[in-house]
């Protein structure tokens, strides 16, 4: 088992809390997507587990932390199963929220973008690559959830998705270069990422869209309506 | 190359036999799915190879066994190519079986769930995590086959799919804790997993389905009709 | 970090040039696919990055080269971002080419099939397995691009796709066995792979298609029309 190169108890605890919180949020988003598709209880649990652990497992494979934390530490499984059961039995409560799947996805995106960047920095990757890995960690869960449901992933359909994850990750990496306190950069990165996504969901913020006159087009529905 | 922590010749041979048998079964299921889609001969072979090795390769990556067995040992490639050619040239014979794709998928699921759990236990993982990895190994092949055909994977559409894989894996892991003979637990786990899937396919056994009144719904076709 | 077992400067430079060129070509194909789907600028960049690095990252994970080159070396990110920006701002120019996405995909396929095989040989894999990994490296980018757009991957829809990649990889592996000069085998393998794909795209070359009378069929559209 590879030890973190920065045996900082604060950092280790921070990454764990962020990781488990992001796991819970993405598991809820995956579970709710499963409930809306009328899956059976195990289908909901599988989707919750896949959505919540895919990003972290991919990150751990890419930085060489094998076996991945989500498979080594029973709490990840426990958290995702708990979230899946909550979705299955109490989905009516969750549906009372506005845009539950997208809001939970935005929370998971922010938490994992920050956790992934922190963990990559702790493993000795350069700030540029750590930010990239943080973005990939954040994006991964939504990709798994959407691909398993045979849909174009939110990272391509939704507005300000990848850039929100990258902004959060970049703030953490930048704060690392400037030696800012970890708590400050983690909170800053998380809030910026979550904020950008909520601005896109609630207020319609968006980036320029590709379009060449005369080119063949088959647009993806970018209404971000879930 | 990481050595199995339990250099038990019986265990090593058992895992190899189960792995190759599961490879053959999943390769047939992938090849038949390719034949039904009228793919060319290499498309059928690629689908057979992907369906039969994806679960095992993922498992080996997650436990740190690199390069994965399916790429290091030529027999995996040989078995999947043979199965693909059988599907391409003699599909009419296989179509005479009832539900050939699903039955072959159920056989692969059972074999890989057991083999994956045994291998994870041999690499020193806890019984809980070994059972989880066994379930993931079993599910993986069907996920690869279905995602490559742009379909929602069987693990989410079909009844008693993930729970069947988990039941088989749990029996192997439980038997390990109780120090039961490996052959007994392997056969028990395999038959329980295969049996649960056949009960779902032939007799319509199913689990409760998610459904919250008033919630937006877009059900996945769960008829398990292939 | 694992060192290449053949510290041959020529080989190392060759693999890097092929890898970066293949990255650029696949990034253009992914970016153009994103432009046609009217994605926003970050969606185009994400698709360009995924299409161009997925094959190489998968290859590096499978041979144990962790972290993968595409995440360790900033030039891969730089090349894919550059290609994505070119697609976003100058797509009209690229659309003037006949079949831009497929031709760029064919270039990426050839470059990565050769680079993947060379790298696997350098890491000590057998020629058979190196050829297989080279084929998987070549195929991987197109699979990522198409799965993210919820489409059946080109490797299953298009004609002479997997066999072209395998032919190129096999020439490199065969040349290694016969101790032919690396430059010769790399060029030979690359041109054969690219040539086979262009023959399929321009002249309609194809392999036999699966078809059993009376069997249920749901063909994939194999017109290779992009």
Automatic annotation (TrEMBL), chains A, B, C:
The chain crosses the membrane at residues 14-35, 42-62, 74-94, 129-148, 160-177. Its main location: membrane. Residues 17-90, 103-173 form the Glycine transporter domain. It is found in: Cell membrane. It holds the Pfam family Gly_transporter. This is Trimeric intracellular cation channel family protein. It is a multi-pass membrane protein. Belongs to the UPF0126 family. The keyword Oxidoreductase does not apply. Keywords: Cell membrane, Membrane, Transmembrane, Transmembrane helix. The keyword Membrane applies.
